[in-house]
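Training component of the fellowship. As part of building independent skills, the fellow (R.M.) carried out the full modelling exercise for a liganded target. The chosen ligand was 3-(4-hydroxy-phenyl)pyruvic acid. The inputs are recorded below so that the supervisory panel can assess the work.
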Amino acid sequence: MTITVAMIGLGLIGGSLSLALQRNENIHVIGFDRRYQTTDEAYRRSIIDEIAPSVRYAIERADIVIFATPVNTTVKLLREAEHWTFRDGVIVTDTGSTKVPIMEAATPLVEQGVTFIGGHPMAGSHKSGIAAAKELLFENAYYVLTPYDDKQKMGIETLRELLQPTKAKVVVLDAYKHDRMTAMVSHFPHVIASSLVDRLAEEKEEEPFVAKLAAGGFRDLTRIASADPKMWRDITLQNRSELLRQVEYWMTSMENVRDMIERADGEEILTFFNRSKKVRDGLPSTFAGATQGALYMTFDLHIDIPDHPGSIAEITKVLADHEISITNIRIVETRTDVYGILVVSFQNTDDRRKAREVLEEETDYSMHII
Ligand SMILES: NC(=O)C1=CN([C@@H]2O[C@H](COP(=O)(O)OP(=O)(O)OC[C@H]3O[C@@H](n4cnc5c(N)ncnc54)[C@H](O)[C@@H]3O)[C@@H](O)[C@H]2O)C=CC1
Ligand SMILES: O=C(O)C(=O)Cc1ccc(O)cc1
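Fellow's submitted model of the complex:
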């Protein structure tokens, strides 16, 4: 039986989700994006099966509707949706980073008998747009569903089944808890990353060389500050009250930090760093070489390389020739003997497996997955 999915918004998330759903041949995706070039590109790259000329066209034909639009747009569209015609038994969901305002906007629809269940795949990137869409973007990531109540069990099961090709781990959460937790692990870190970069910009005015000194740690901590500012403005406004709570906690915490530094209290400083190291090291971290942060995951391949300049170029050329994308590349250890270790990170297990196969075929390097 064919299931028709309407995907509204074909950017990073809508595009990636459609690509994953295409793995199930019984799913027919009708796509709509405000930008016609995006819908057209999605169709040409077989990310969607059919182009919808309007949101209403897609919705009227769908068994499942997914809004993968910016959170403010999703709220706006859900308010308009009160006046649209849905198929009997339709399930409507979204992918927004916030849940409470979106669930509130969907309430009139639910009162009309439409099943709405909030959704949020906890994986993504600082890149936006269909060009960055990837079939396995959500592999092994949590995919949160936020129902209104226990009566929506059937809808949850339908979505769980639909999302199987994403290889994400579906979890059910209350929308308020979701917004509280994502404020802590996603939205507030974004504010911190941006404010650190802001500080760098100020410092750079006085001392231009400082930006060149901004090495690994600063880059790791601030990567997300490169994400789409409008998307993050909207998330910040929609999760305002939870973000304000996080700001308060942070200010108290920074006051304590200031005090212990002012007092030059080495013992307290050590306790502070020890405590956070223990928590950080205990976060879900490695399995079969996957480095899984709370939200972000990479799949690493460790390659023993001789200490001469041509080897990195040789490895990246083989990967490029086979169109295998890498997400990161670094030398973790340069030993005094002839070999160092090059760690190449991939987006998913499939890419890493292919990389290992082609490198084994075309080079003599030893490789390990740790
Ligand atoms: N970027 C990320 O890493 C993640 C984003 N999300 C959420 O997923 C949603 C989509 O985010 P992205 O895909 O990253 O953004 P994006 O900017 O890559 O894609 C959004 C798409 O929606 C389209 N759009 C805007 N208004 C529209 C309208 N009225 N009708 C139809 N299409 C419209 C845009 O043209 C664009 O193609 C957002 O709600 C975001 O909070 C969730 C998880 C991760
Ligand atoms: O790029 C990253 O590491 C992210 O954390 C991406 C992201 C952005 C927004 C979300 O709601 C979820 C994940």
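The panel noted the following from the submitted structure. The domain at 178-270 is CATH 1.10.3660.10 (6-phosphogluconate dehydrogenase C-terminal fold). The pocket of 3-(4-hydroxy-phenyl)pyruvic acid (ligand 2) is lined by residues 97, 122-126, 186, 224, 295-296 (CB under 6 Å).
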